[in-house]
């Protein structure tokens, strides 16, 4: 397969994966309506991004817009989501980022609008996928200020809480990004439910968590 044909094939595969992921997010209450957006890197300097106002659960190929990460210019007549600055800065600061999901699922957004701390030392998946969590102060959506704040925090975490806004997760594949947001939402639901019922959660100690992560007792630990 020639290089041009290979790149076209890659883009088509990414589009299909994004469409399927959008349906999955809606079906599992990890997104709603036209709230949120996502993107996937297709080259070092290019990303495919959901268009402005698109519904995550009803994406079509023409809803996915190719955007130059450096210039922020896009191809075609369809306008991409205004949240380009967030996605752009994550890709610039994290070479391992291949898929980014920005959404506002109920339980995670509740945490983002509260002072409830997120705990990762609870169970296997939370230890792995929520090892590094960061918080971003509120800035209006689509602004340069929000993009810069997200980019800075992305250097230290794969899960970002946007205060009074929602969440961002990113990873090196569609499968891992999906698992990360699912783990986040489940954990947030556990935390809020336990707090509302006066349940004290038993946190694993630091030694146990470190042994779990370093000994690859689930998956090889991802390094920042």
What is the topological layout?
Layout: H1 3-27, E1 37-43, E2 46-50, E3 64-68, H2 84-93, E4 99-103, H3 106-112, H4 124-129, E5 133-136, H5 144-153, E6 159-162, E7 166-171, H6 174-196, H7 206-214
Parallel strand pairs: 5-6
Antiparallel strand pairs: 1-2, 1-4, 2-3, 4-7, 6-7
- Structural domain count: 1
By DSSP, the count of extended strands is 7
Q: For the largest beta sheet, what order do the strands appear in spatially?
A: 3-2-1-4-7-6-5
Task: Tell me what portion of residues adopts beta-strand conformation.
Answer: 15-25%
Structural class: alpha+beta
Helix content: 40-55%
Structural Rg = 18 Å
Count, helices: 7
Shape: globular
Mean pLDDT: 94
CATH topology assignment: L-fuculose-1-phosphate Aldolase
* Major β-sheet annotation: 7 strands, mixed
Model description:
The chain is α+β, with helices and mostly antiparallel strands. It has a single domain (3-214), classed as Class II aldolase/adducin N-terminal domain (L-fuculose-1-phosphate Aldolase), CATH 3.40.225. Helices cover 40% and strands 16% of the residues. It has helices at residues 3-27, 84-93, 106-112, 124-129, 144-153, 174-196, 206-214; strands at 37-43, 46-50, 64-68, 99-103, 133-136, 159-162, 166-171. The protein has a seven-stranded mixed sheet with strand order 3-2-1-4-7-6-5, with helices on both faces. Strand 6 and strand 7 (166-171) form a beta hairpin. It is globular. The two termini are 34 Å apart. The model has no long low-confidence stretch (mean pLDDT 94).
């Amino acid at each position: 397969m020639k290089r041009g044909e290979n790149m076209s094939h890659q883009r088509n595969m990414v589009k299909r994966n994004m469409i399927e992921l959008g349906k999955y997010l809606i079906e599992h209450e990890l997104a709603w309506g036209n709230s949120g957006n996502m993107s996937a890197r297709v080259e070092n300097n290019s990303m495919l991004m959901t268009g402005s106002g698109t519904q995550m659960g009803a994406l079509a190929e023409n809803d996915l817009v190719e955007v130059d990460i450096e210039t922020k210019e896009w191809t075609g007549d369809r306008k991409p989501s205004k949240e380009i600055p967030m996605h752009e800065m994550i890709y610039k600061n994290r070479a391992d980022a291949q898929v980014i999901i920005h959404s506002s699922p109920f339980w995670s957004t509740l945490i983002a609008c509260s002072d409830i701390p997120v705990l990762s030392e609870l169970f296997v998946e939370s230890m792995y996928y929520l090892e590094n969590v960061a918080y971003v102060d509120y800035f209006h959506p689509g602004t340069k200020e929000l993009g810069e704040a997200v980019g800075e925090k992305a250097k230290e975490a794969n899960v970002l809480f946007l205060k009074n806004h929602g969440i961002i997760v990113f990873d090196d594949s569609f499968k891992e990004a999906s698992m990360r947001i699912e783990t986040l939402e489940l954990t947030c639901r556990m935390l809020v439910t336990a707090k509302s019922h006066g349940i004290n959660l038993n946190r694993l100690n630091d030694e146990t968590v470190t042994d779990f992560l370093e000994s690859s007792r689930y998956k090889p630990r991802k390094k920042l």
